[in-house]
Amino acid sequence: MNTSVDSPNPMIASDRVEGTAVYNRNGDRLGTVERFMVDKVSGQAEYAVLAFGGLFGIGHRHYPLPWNALTFDPDKGGYVVDVTQEQIEGAPGYDAEGGDEPSYDREYRERLDAYYTFPPI
Amino acid sequence: MNTSVDSPNPMIASDRVEGTAVYNRNGDRLGTVERFMVDKVSGQAEYAVLAFGGLFGIGHRHYPLPWNALTFDPDKGGYVVDVTQEQIEGAPGYDAEGGDEPSYDREYRERLDAYYTFPPI
Question: Are A10 and B104 inside 8 Å of each other by CB?
Fold first, then answer.
């Protein structure tokens, strides 16, 4: 995740990431970061889980986005990611309420990595 | 942070870390993880902020602990860290309500690293 280099604080609080809005390059608001997934051993943040779709919080789904694909935009007060709404709709995701959260095993992570092939930011 | 190697999921959700209990080696409950601090550029979790002291959530203070000092104990359902309550009381910390959160600049981080010199776990 890229952020302003002149930011006075090199750290961001986990609970500040959660709930932050996510936009695409066109400025469309895709949703918010529901949570993010951290590698238990290395402590590396690997995926930001986007809450997308639905209406007033009902019926939305969760889409893990590669952490490195998100860039914080201080002007927007949110993260920007270079994907369209249509790309999100076709991406690996799961029902936010259904309890079918992925296990992030190697196969699932390879699917995510293969789906999100971003150009350099 | 070290966790069970046979865990089926290599990832942990950020909002599951938050609120998790922290114990010391004697089994004393030191407090809970209030949040954790992630390096904005690298995405590396660097510090778990321990909410410690006070009574019924009043008057407690926040103490950033090096992320690598925490080990998850599935039996306890919490993290274990090799420090005493007295060590925490003398550690760099700040008022949880006072708005005097550290900026995590180099000097502050060096203070933390110097204070917490853990033996290998």
Answer: yes
